[in-house]
Structure to design on (255 residues):
């Protein structure tokens, strides 16, 4: 069984010890981190030299930046890390793992769109095209990360819903639905279809996290062909001080 996890850490330097403790406790086979807010050389050395993991850090020091870690039990040699052609602002890194049934894993941060909404839509369109290309080439995907879109109304707590708000507009939802439509499954929802309180992000005020008044915007989108291998999924709402929680799945070994 392999644990695969995604977590928007909202600053890797501020949460270094929390991330290290979490990795030591969970021992994920694959971890995907977003919003590093650090260039690769600014990532703490303890994480860059993480024992038992191949890691890749992709950032420019702004609010974005992503990381991807692969446990050495899944890859005897360092995987080849790639950036799709549309990655212009350190928002996505990928690696393909033969040990996981040729699964290609992507750690993704979709811009929230508050400063440049058109750029967010463009990124989602490109993500959809990339997923479509992978489907045509029979490359099973796992897209893991902060996608900054609530797929349905129930993915936002009723107290947080506002007309026309970014993250819930029809065109954003249509684009994310198109990404999922390229042969992917929204694992969290697939395993917990009746849960209307399945949130992953909470605004950092009024104890919203403790009260679970939030949004579901962090996802693990897995190739439908691999979905039968999923044994569990969870949101770790009590972990860390980021405004996002880690989201994890348990994946059985490939037959």
């Amino acid at each position: 069984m392999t644990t695969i996890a995604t977590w928007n850490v909202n600053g890797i330097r501020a949460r270094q010890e929390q991330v290290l403790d979490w990795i030591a406790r969970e021992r994920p086979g694959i971890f995907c981190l977003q919003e590093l807010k650090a260039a690769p050389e600014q990532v703490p050395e303890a994480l860059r030299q993480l024992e038992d993991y191949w890691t890749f850090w992709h950032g420019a020091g702004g609010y974005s930046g992503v990381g991807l870690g692969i446990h050495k039990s899944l890859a005897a040699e360092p995987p080849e890390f790639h950036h799709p052609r549309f990655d212009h602002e350190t928002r996505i890194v990928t690696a393909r793992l033969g040990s996981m049934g040729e699964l290609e894993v992507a750690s993704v941060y979709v811009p929230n769109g508050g400063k440049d909404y058109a750029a967010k839509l463009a990124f989602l369109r490109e993500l959809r095209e990339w997923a479509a290309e992978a489907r045509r080439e029979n490359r099973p995907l796992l897209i893991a990360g902060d996608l900054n879109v609530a797929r349905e109304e129930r993915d936002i707590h009723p107290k947080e819903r506002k007309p026309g708000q970014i993250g819930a507009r029809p065109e954003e939802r249509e684009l994310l639905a198109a990404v999922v439509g390229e042969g992917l499954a929204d694992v969290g929802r697939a395993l917990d279809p009746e849960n209307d309180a399945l949130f992953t992000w909470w605004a950092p005020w009024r104890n919203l996290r403790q009260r679970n008044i939030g949004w579901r915007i962090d996802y693990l989108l897995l190739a439908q062909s691999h979905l039968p291998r999923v044994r569990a999924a969870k949101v770790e709402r009590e972990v860390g001080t980021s405004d996002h929680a880690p989201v994890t799945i348990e994946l059985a070994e490939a037959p």
In short: The mean pLDDT is 92.
